[in-house]
């Protein structure tokens, strides 16, 4: 248990630049407090001490503003930033090295018993206010934008934005990226100051326009030469 606590403290220092000391993390970081208490609550749950586990989870919610059902399965190095308003349902399953922000809900869409909450792969990041609903699976490395509503499975290394969530696969076409940057610079265009690692559907459409402009420019140059 002590090694787990140390690992959770290390995660806070790794992912939160505001962290200053171990003592401060232990006593003032609600995300750290919530996950450590959940480890205990989850152990009680599997010992069939359901009432005590739920009572402790209720206490955790009271002091941290984070509601994690003791039945939820959470992997190693789980990081919660700010934390207020987070809800994680009973049958949620979370992989290793996952990060989530305040206002996130991992919720169900049915009153039936059984698997009804999401499964998150390793290295998933969920932005503030996002809702991931139903027994869906987010592939490893998925990033969910702020306030997105995700109700469908995602492949690995996808980015999901919007309501309902639109799935965008990260692309690795460096030549295309350089070409688009050159064309955008030439015509004085910037897509909402978006960075390449945070695509959205609007930017994808605009990139298609840039590709088309580049093609037209090449054809025009060839006609001039002829």
Quick structural overview:
It contains six helices and 15 strands.
Descriptors:
UDP N-Acetylglucosamine Acyltransferase, domain 1; 15 strands; alpha/beta; 226 residues; 5-stranded parallel sheet
Summarize the topology:
Layout: H1 2-15, H2 22-28, H3 30-46, H4 50-64, E1 67-68, E2 73-74, E3 79-81, E4 87-88, E5 93-94, E6 99-101, E7 105-107, E8 119-120, E9 125-126, E10 131-133, E11 137-138, E12 143-144, E13 149-150, E14 158-161, E15 166-169, H5 174-186, H6 201-225
Parallel strand pairs: 1-4, 2-5, 3-6, 4-7, 5-8, 6-9, 7-10, 8-11, 9-12, 10-13, 12-14
Antiparallel strand pairs: 14-15
Can you describe this structure?
The strands form three sheets. The protein has a six-stranded mixed beta sheet with strand order 3-6-9-12-14-15. It has a five-stranded parallel beta sheet with strand order 1-4-7-10-13. The radius of gyration is 22 Å and the shape is elongated. Helices cover 40% and strands 17% of the residues. Helix 3 packs antiparallel against helix 4 (50-64) and helix 5 crosses helix 6 (201-225). The chain starts with a helix and ends with a helix. By secondary structure, the chain is an alpha/beta fold.
